[in-house]
Amino acid sequence: MKIDPIAHQAAVNIYKSKRGQTPAQGYQSAMDQLSLSADVVSFSATINKIKEQMELRAPEELAHVTEIASQVKNGVYYVPATQVAEKIVHDYYM
User: Fold this and answer.
1) Residue 34 and residue 40: Cα distance in Å, rounded?
2) Which residue has the higher pLDDT, 52 or 54?
3) Helices (H), 1-94
4) Which of 23, 35, 45, 71 has the fewest beta carbons closer than 10 A?
5) What is the DSSP letter of 76?
């Protein structure tokens, strides 16, 4: 298979000749568009509702949540297995 060489100097010359020219008339009116899927819109609405609910929390509750998040992030959050088991059993049978 033979691959023909590219005339790279011709491409560079075309680029140099177009530099500084204004875009074509139709190009100026072009716009980018973005459309979001229904799943993304629904997810965004859910996140916004969660943020709103978090803002309604009492300062003490927010401090508690922040403390737990910090412990989880630092790898020091601990819940005894007996408490987890009790909660599971209570929720299952009650």
Assistant:
1) 12
2) 52
3) 8-18, 25-28, 38-55, 59-74, 81-93
4) 35
5) -
Q: pTM for the complete prediction? A: 0.35
Separation CA 49–CA 43 (nearest Å): 10
Nearest alpha carbon to residue 69 among 47, 56, 82, 54: 54
pLDDT digits (tens, 9 = 90+) for 23-41: 655 555 567 788 888 899 9
Please report which confidence band the pLDDT of residue 68 belongs to, taking 50, 70 and 90 as the band edges: very high
Distance of alpha carbon 14 from alpha carbon 11, whole angstroms: 5
Q: What is the distance between the alpha carbons of residues 53 and 62, in angstroms, rounded to a whole number?
A: 11
